[in-house]
Amino acid sequence: MKKLVFATNNQHKTEEIRLALAGEYEVLNLNDIGCDTDIPETANTFEGNASLKSKYVVENFNLDCFADDSGLEVEALNNEPGVFSARYGGSRDSLENMQLVLQKLEGQHNRKARFKTVISLMLNGVNHIFEGTIEGKITQNLTGSNGFGYDPIFQPDGYSITFAEMDMAKKNKISHRAIALKKMIEFLKAS
C-alpha cells in the first residue's frame, strides 16, 4: 500500500484521514516517521505555509505528504488575522487572539468573516492545492466550549450558534478543513 504522510502531530486529525483513505493509503503522521522538527511557517499565505510543510517532509523523508494551513479572515480587518491567526495577539493564546479581534471590531457593523484551509499535497513530485472556506460572522461575545482557536466567536452562515456550540461531529462535516480534505480525498481516490 502507498504511504502518505500528513504533516501533523494531531492524532485525531490523523485518524480521520486514515478512515477516509482506508485500503488505499497507509496514512502516517510526523510522529510516525520520526520527524520532531518544528517546521517553520514563514510564508505570507496559507498556500505558502502548507507547501513549506509538505515539501519539507518530501525533501527530508522522501515520502509523499500533505499539509494544511488554516486561519480566520475578518473582512473589516483587511482579512486579518489571516496567516497570523495562531499568534495574532502576540502569543499562541486563543483567548488573547479572540479578545484582540473583538476589540478591533468594537463599533464595527461589518462582522463578516471566513475560516479558510489550504492543503498542499506533494504527490510524485507535484504540488496539488486544495482549498476550503466557510463564510460566517464574528459574534459580539464568546459562546460555547467545544472546538478550539476562534470557534467561540465564529458563527457560520445558516446557523444561529458558533462553532464552539456545535458538537464536533457536526462541525467536522461543514468546516473549512472538511471541505478542503473532501476535495483532496476525491482527488486521491480518482488518481
Task: Give a short overview.
A hairpin with a 2-residue loop joins strand 5 and strand 6 (126-138). This protein is 31% helix and 26% strand. The chain contains five helices and seven strands, in the order E-H-E-H-E-E-H-E-E-E-H-H.
Task: Give the tags.
alpha/beta, Maf protein, seven-stranded mixed beta sheet, 31% helix
Write the layout of secondary structure elements.
Elements: E1 2-6, H1 11-20, E2 25-29, H2 46-61, E3 65-74, E4 80-81, H3 94-104, E5 112-123, E6 126-138, E7 154-156, H4 168-174, H5 176-190
Parallel strand pairs: 1-2, 1-3
Antiparallel strand pairs: 3-4, 3-5, 5-6, 6-7
What does it look like?
The chain has 191 residues and is an alpha/beta fold. The protein has helices spanning 11-20, 46-61, 94-104, 168-174, 176-190; strands spanning 2-6, 25-29, 65-74, 80-81, 112-123, 126-138, 154-156. Strands 1, 2, 3, 4, 5, 6 and 7 form a seven-stranded mixed beta sheet that branches.
**Helicity level:** 25-40%
Radius of gyration from CA coordinates: 17 Å
SS-based class = alpha/beta
Helix and strand run: EHEHEEHEEEHH
Q: Strand percentage, roughly? A: 25-35%
CATH topology term:
Maf protein
The appropriate CATH architecture is Alpha-Beta Complex
Give the overall shape, derived from the CA principal axes.
globular
Number of domains: 1
pLDDT < 50 stretches: none
